[in-house]
Each structure stands twice: as C-alpha cells, then as structure tokens.
Structures
1.
Amino acid sequence: MTHQTTAGEMTTIKRYPAEIIKFFQDNYPEYPQYSEQLLEFQQSLFDNAAPHTLLAIAHIGNQCSLEIACLEYVRRTYYPEQSIHMVLLGSGHLSLKLEAEFELLPPRLQQVLDDLNSIQWVDILGCQRLKFDDGKLLLDRYAHESTNDFIELCKLSATKIDGWQLSPDVNISEINAEFVQLMASSCQPYANIFLPNQTDKTLLQSRYLQFMTGNSINENSTSTHLQNADIESSIAIIGGGLASVNLALSLAERGKPIEFFCKDNSVAQGASGNKQGGLYPLLTPENDLLSQYFQQAFLFCRQRISSLHQQGFSIAHDFCGVVQSGHEERSTARLQKIVNGNDWPQQILQSISADKANEISGVSIDKDSLYYPLAGWVCPADFARAALNKASVLTEVNTHFNTQIVKLEQTPQGWILHSDNQSYGPYQKVINASGYGLTGFEQTRHLPASLFRGQVSHIPSNNELSKLKTVICAHGYLTPSHNQHHCLGASYIKGAENIHYSELEQQQNKQRMEESYPDREWVNSIDVSEQDARVGVRLVTRDHFPMLGLAPNFEAIQQLEAEQPFKRKQQVADYWQNMPLPVFNGLYILGALGSRGLCSGPLAAEALAAVLCNELPPVSPTLFEKVNPNRLWKRKLIKGRPLN
Ligand SMILES: Cc1cc2nc3c(=O)[nH]c(=O)nc-3n(C[C@H](O)[C@H](O)[C@H](O)COP(=O)(O)OP(=O)(O)OC[C@H]3O[C@@H](n4cnc5c(N)ncnc54)[C@H](O)[C@@H]3O)c2cc1C
C-alpha cells in the first residue's frame, strides 16, 4: 500500500502500530483480518479524496473507539493536511484503554488517544459536535433517537459521504431497506462500505449497489439554507462580538481567508465585552427544539473554550456549575416543570434539595434548585479575543478595525461594503454579525428582532460573597469572584440603545437579588455603591432562537404576498409552506443571540461555517428552519396573516 506525502515521496503504509494491532487481536479474535481490512478501507478513503479536503465518514455501531483512533492515527501520520468529519450513529461509546496495556505509546498515537479519552458524550437529542486538532478531526455524534436528524440532513444536503463504516456490534439485519437506500444515495460514487464480517458485507453491498444505480435523493434538495457555491474567495464578516469571532474561527479551521470589519478599535466592545457571563443551556419542560439546540450549543461552546484555553489562549472561566432557583411562585413552578418534564442527562441538569443547593453554591440558597453541573462562567471578552487570535494563527484574517460599515451594495460582481470614506470588495459572501447593528442596513432593517439594554454591576468581593462557588441565578444572576469582583446582572430594558451608566438599574440589580434570596446575610453584603458597571445592548428574537442563514429580502417577500392567488385558508397555508421565500444571495445573517449568546453563538457560527463550506452542518434541517431569519414572516404568511 503506498501513499504520496506532501513532499511528493511515496510512503508505504503496511500496518498500524503494534500496540493497535494487539488491541485488535485481543478484542476481536473472531475477526483475525480486521486490522488489515480496516487499514485498507481507510487508505482507500484517503486515496480517493482530493488533497486538503474534508473526508466525511459515517460510522454505524456502538463500538467506535478503535476505528476512530486508527483513522485519526493514519491521518495525523500520513495525511496531516487532510481533515476528517466522522459522523457517529450509535452510542459513540469510547473505551480506549490502550494506554493501560502499553507503558509507552508512539507519541502521535498517544496524542490521538488523549484527545479521544477527553471526550465526554452527553445523551442529548440531536447532534453533539466535537473538534480536535484545529478542527481537522470533527466528530458528530447522533445517539439512536436522533438518527433521523442525520437522515434528514443527508436527504437535503448536497454534501456526500465518502465512506460508510460499520462496527462489529452491528446486526445488519436491523438495517432496513430505507436506510440502505439513504446510504447509497447520500454518498460519493466511489464510496465504499466497511464491515468486519465479510458475509455481512456481501449481503449489504448487494442491496446497497442496487440503490447506487437509482436516483440520488439529494438532487431534489430545495433548502436554501443548505445551498452554496463558490467557497474559495474571501468571506467578509461584519462584527466584533462572539458571533463574528466564532465564525472567523470556524472558517479559519477550514482554511478560509477572512476580511473582518469592526466599527470599534478592538473586538468585544459591544454586548460581548462583559467580564463574566453565565454559560448554561436554556431548557424547556418539553425539551423542544429550542432546548435541544441550547444543549448542543452549550456542549460545543464548552469544548471550544476548553480547547482554546489548553492551547494557551488566556480565557478567564470556571465551569463551576450553575444553581438556579425560582424567585416567586410562577418561576418556581416553571423550574419544577422543567425538571419534571424530562429525563435530563445528569451532566445537563439535576434537581437538588435546598441543603444541597447551599452546599454546592457555598451560600445559603435555602430552596430546592436546579443544578447544571457542567455549566459555569466565562469572560466573553477574553473568549472573543482568543477566538480571533486563534483564527489569525490558522488563516489569513485581514482585520479592519475602526471601520463602521454603513451600506451594503449588491453588484453583479458581488457585495461591496461601504464605510463613510472607503469601499471594500466585491465579496461573494458577506456575513452580517454586527450584534444589535444587525438591522442597521437597508437590506436587514425589517428583521423582526428587538433591542434590550442591559447593565451588569461589578461588585467588590467580601468575606460573605467570596464563599460563592457556583454561578447562582434566579431573578438576576451572581458570579463567583474573579479579580476580587463579582458580576451581578443584569437589567433588561426594551428599546434603549444608549449605553450610559444608570444608578437606577444598579440599585435594581441588587434589589433583584434581595427578592430572589430574601433576608440572606450574604445578599445584604452586596455593595453596588462603587457605581462600577458595564452596559451593553442585546438583540432579541421573540422565540429566543438565534438568526442564522441567508438574509431574507423583505420587499420581494411582500411582493409575493401581494401576488398570492389563494383565498382558502388551507390553500394559502400550502402555498406558503412550499414557497421558498426570496433572499439576498451571498448576504448572511448571524446573530440575534439575545441574553444567552455566550451559549448559543459559537454553534450558530459553526453551523454557518459548515454551510458556507459545503459540509454537513451540526444542525438538522428542521432546526435550520427554526433559526432561519425569515421564520416569523413565513409563519405569518402560512397562517394567512398580513406581514405588516
Ligand atoms: C448586560 C448583558 C449581560 C449578558 N449576560 C449574558 C450571560 O450571562 N450569558 C450569556 O450567555 N449571554 C449574556 N449576554 C448576551 C451575550 O453577551 C450576547 O448575546 C452576545 O455577546 C452577542 O454577541 P454578538 O456578536 O451578536 O454581538 P456584539 O457582542 O454586540 O458584537 C457586535 C459587534 O459588531 C460591531 N458592529 C456593529 N455594527 C457594525 C457596523 N455597522 N460595522 C462594523 N462593525 C459593527 C460592534 O462593534 C460589535 O463589536 C448578555 C448581554 C448583555 C448586554
């Protein structure tokens, strides 16, 4: 077996390292050829792929440790410029005990195992995405209940799978014809299937080949979200907060050159500039798509922060947990409904007694509470700086600070960005991720989102407050001490765009703590008199989903509305249900992150980057419809209500 290195020499890859082979022999004695066959399959994947591309491999089965470890070892050793996107359909259970058997592993293999051993899958619905080695290894795990999300994605996406891999625990008689058809229609013409059992392979392959000659279901793709074209030219991003820098990082991990426009002299001067923000998922009793999105986003964000931090980027944070309690009857009942509404994974949410809440938080909460054990706080400003710095290490990021974009002009050559005294472009792709500035352009001014001003108070730590070990939230939130100060937040004032200090809001921040935790000594010790605070403006949607996708063309939609021929309710509904609403090609929206942007922003950015680069995104098409910036208009039209 030969392999051409980037330097052009031919290398022979004969076998995995002895340590891996021994693991195969010990664990799969019934498949003596397993390691050779797997290596052959993996080699063929790399040989078939164009250089510097992302190889998409779908793995079916609960056992996947060895398969991922081997593939990643081969990639890092022989194809370091290649990237792998591995989709795990199954429990994704990783049990890599290789290091226990060998005292010294080859360093590259050890690195792979360290990465994989750090994985903490959580049984959430939908996709859990993890990234390693600067995004060159991308793992998407769909637990059993969520396989349909992946099927839906394959059906609508133009992106093809390069190979299917089944682990020894898979019973192929349980793979139905519909799924085999999906396997065949969603993959590249050269894609192969790998199974350790050769009899199974012959059986499955004959069924699979029948479908390979059939029509590809992908050709009927209609989703405007998942459409894409030219991906080589520079992508222009307007922003400076968490949305934009996370997009820059996700694109940089894919090697895309970026032009970055920010009206301030550095990043994180807007809503993302706080010293500490709570990072925890927004859950609902029904665990609906909003709640599912937030869990996926929470886990993604957490891994991104940890990974940047481990690489030496300074991000003040502490995943110390969040303790949430009600502050009056209604909110207490709501939290109770959330806890009881679902069998939440322990890592996401636990119901704890009043005593436990006191013990975990370190202060007297004295109420039954909700506990988010993996949650905590992070300094969003540090996070934003780290993400952009890392992006600049990975790709060419051309930053234009002190550059407020005031106008977007669509020309046949692409989009031109205008500041007061200069023009930039044309760009084939422009992403408007400008926080509450999102609606500041002619094309986006109608977007249905509202401004909410917020003031976070910075209060000095003291004997009482320094006991706080977790973020606590009720009506408002309080963070553990960082640099001898705590963040106490936050006011929520509709419409206000000014960012002046408000004494009233400073006092109200304290009052909210007093209402939430009445007569506690530690609350009395909260001192807001230093008048130290930071004000920002959030852009909020009514349904709390972020906005992500092509910018809708409101005027063109109105035109369609005027021409809509039907009167009967059902006909109107059917008409709009199937009608793709007009968009501004090449202009994308990323934002409206509301009050939980720390949590929701990074995954939204990652999903958009995946779409821009023609990859399978970590978000299902149904979820994409939920975040589509046109969704509220579409809903109105379907219900037969006027847009204005
Ligand atoms: C007071 C307060 C407390 C919060 N607390 C939390 C919390 O505890 N947990 C949590 O998860 N979330 C919290 N949030 C929400 C979170 O901070 C936001 O959702 C998130 O930071 C928004 O990021 P963004 O990138 O969309 O916007 P921003 O951070 O506002 O970034 C927008 C950027 O765009 C730039 N820009 C705007 N217009 C233009 C233009 N025309 N040309 C060039 N550049 C432009 C601005 O300079 C700015 O840097 C809080 C928000 C506020 C205001």
2.
Amino acid sequence: MNQWNQEHKKEEYYKKAKQQDYRSRASFKLLQLNRKYKIIKNGDSVVDLGAAPGGWSQVALELVGEDGLVVAVDLNWIKPFPEENFWGIKGDFTAEETLEEIRRTLQGKAQVVISDAAPKLSGIKDLDQLRSIDLAQTVLLICDDVLKYKGNMVMKVFQGEGYPELLKEVKRKFQTVRTTKPPSSRKKSGEMYVVARGFQRAGKQD
Ligand SMILES: C[S@@+](CC[C@H](N)C(=O)[O-])C[C@H]1O[C@@H](n2cnc3c(N)ncnc32)[C@H](O)[C@@H]1O
C-alpha cells in the first residue's frame, strides 16, 4: 500500500472512531480480531495490559456486558468509564506491585488477557523491537498468574529478534495459536497480533 493510501486508511479509522465514540482507532483492531477469533464473551473478566487511552477496554466493556469485568493497566492515567465494572490501574505492569494490584482487583482469575502494549519508541528500531518482545514475555508471565485454565489471550508484538522464540513459548502454553494483522493495522508496520486460545496451566484446572 502506498503512503497516500496508508494515510487515507488511518484517517478513515480515525473518523470512524470519532463517529462511534471510540477513544482510539485501535478499538477497531480488537473488534476485528474478536469478530474473527471470538476471544471475549459476555460475562468474562478481562485484563487489558497497556490500555491507555482505553480504546480496547471500551470494546471489552461492550463485549463482557454488565456481568463481566475489565481491569485496565497503563503507565498513563486512563480516564474512567461510567460502567461500574471497569477498573483502571495506573502502573507499570512489569512491576510486582502492579501485578499485586491486578490480583486484588480481579479477586480470582480472568478468562481473557489482552495487550496492545508498546514500548515508548526511542527511534532505534532494533531496541524498540526488543523492548516489545520483553513486554510480550511479561504478558505471558502475567497469564501464568491471572489467566484461567482454557482462557484466551491476544497481544501485539513487533516482529524481529526473539519473535520466533516468543511464539514457541505461546504455543507451549496455549492449545491454538494464530498470528494475524487485522485490516485496520498498517500493512507495512512490523506489528503482529498473536491470538492464543485454550490456556494450559501446567496440568492445573481452575
Ligand atoms: C498503543 S497504546 C495502547 C492503546 C490501547 N489499546 C487503546 O486502544 O487505547 C500502548 C500503551 O502501552 C503502554 N505501556 C507500555 N509499556 C507499559 C508498561 N510496562 N506498563 C503499563 N503500560 C505500558 C503505553 O503507556 C501505551 O499507553
């Protein structure tokens, strides 16, 4: 896709987000992923890692309905939603104290972990890509802690060094794994979405 088309597409999703009152264009990525892979369903508890400004959380809130719960974490403050089943946590999800707060808020396990987290870009492509892999590794560790047996996960990751190993690790932990780019994601960007279903926790069922 050429530069003009890319910009045009970006603009189109921006306008659509505004019209439909979504906080970010990213909302459409989760909507498209969920339509195809049925990651989140009514009544689920969802943990959203790297959630600001809240576009994914907003979609998750719609999907889980009143009986579900969305716990959203970001380094930046997330403006709360009117729904009572939304909890925002300002913190670094790689820090133990944040994980503790997630556990406290959830009071049990989550059916779904979603992460659109991206490192603050330094402009050095290789460094940013490695940081993205680090974040993705942490997301997997958090799954070990808070995700229910047979739960689902979707996360964004930048392809490059460490990506094949990461995928291997995801395949070890989940029954089915797909990698995909939703139509609203720019074709040229190195970002990839890993959709994993059926979490297997070292023989445990909960
Ligand atoms: C692309 S944005 C997420 C957009 C969001 N999905 C939406 O739809 O509005 C990536 C976010 O990851 C967050 N992030 C990166 N590293 C983080 C960390 N260690 N802990 C918490 N949040 C982090 C950034 O602050 C940023 O807000």
